Amino acid sequence: MPGKRARRHFSQLNEFERGLIIGMKTTGWSTRRIAGQVDRSECPVRNCWEQWTREGTHAWKTGSGATREITRRVERRIVRQALVDPSVTRSTIRADVGLAIVPQTISSHLAETNLKSRRPFHALPLTPELRQLRLHWCQARSKWNVTDW
Domain Transposase Tc1-like: where (predicted)? Predict the structure, then answer.
């Protein structure tokens, strides 16, 4: 599957691959040969080696990525509210938490825990045919008493 290879080709290097690249590079392999061996492009191989020669480590840099907007405690509170009342809205959760966070942040934290916002139906979406069938069903049973039911 060529698509699968392309996705892997540009994904992040894991710890094993970083160590493998450094080992091959120290034995004298070229960047192109290493890239072919670990099935990656030359750029991450080169970057890994440059980081090794510059910093003496191949570990992930701490602090990379976006900073956390909310604490773990607030995150648990958001999830708890969604579990207690599945029909609660993002704006209600935001007001209860008491922080100035955007609704998308709440949705993303709920999605991380496999929860989704559920809005209750105001009414069932009925077609005219279904409405007519329901009406006939009700009219046929309107004169029934308790024993008939």
Answer: 76-140
Name, in order, each residue with C-beta under 8 angstroms of 32's C-beta and a sequence gap of 6 or more.
Answer: 42
Spatial contact of 78 and 106, defined as CB atoms under 8 Å apart = yes
Report the alpha-carbon distance of residue 62 to residue 57 in Å, rounded: 12
Q: Is the pTM of this model over 0.70?
A: no
Residue 21: is it exposed, middle or buried by C-beta count within 10 angstroms (0-12/13-18/19+)?
A: buried
Contact 82, 93 (CB under 8 A): yes
Q: At what angle do helices 72-84 and 90-97 cross, to 10 degrees?
A: 130
DSSP for 42-65 reads: HHHHHHHHHHHHHHS--SPPTT-S
The answer to whether 109 and 143 have CB atoms below 8 angstroms apart is no
How open is the CA angle 114-4-14, to the nearest 5 degrees? 70
101: Cβ–Cβ under 8 A, 6 or more apart, which residues?
69, 70, 94
